Amino acid sequence: MTPPEAPVSDAGTMPPAVSACLDVSQPLVMRKRSDFLAAARAHRCGTSGMMVQARRRDDGSDLVRVGFTCSKKVGNAVARNRAKRRLREVARAVLPTSALPGWDYVLIGRADATAARPFERLKGDLDYALRKLHGQVQK
Known about the structure:
The chain is α/β, with parallel strands linked by helices. It has one domain: Ribosomal Protein S5, domain 2, CATH 3.30.230.10. About 35% of the residues lie in helices and about 20% in strands. A five-stranded mixed β-sheet has the order 1-4-5-3-2, with helices on both faces. It starts with about 25 loop residues before the first strand and ends in a 6-residue tail after the last helix.
């Protein structure tokens, strides 16, 4: 018995197995330690589900960049990766509408809270933190 063939597009090429690239409306992911350290020296806002650090870049670019991190206090590698996956999904849902152009954001997972908090509340936490960091929260 032969395996079924994968669908072929009109161009005659195979579709990608996984589409892991970010599209233009999504923020770029920070990977350099120096970018994380620069964000750590800037503004921060803690919520129940995460800590958010934000800074305005001086390079004149309108790109939004985001980084994700969890310390070993969150748990073992499995727990840290689960927390970072949840942070990535929250960022994917909230940042396209709430982030300001030319800013860097670092989302830091909290022990027990990031993985256990309901997803809608995590989204609300990030939205609140962004409004507070950008000075849009009414007291």
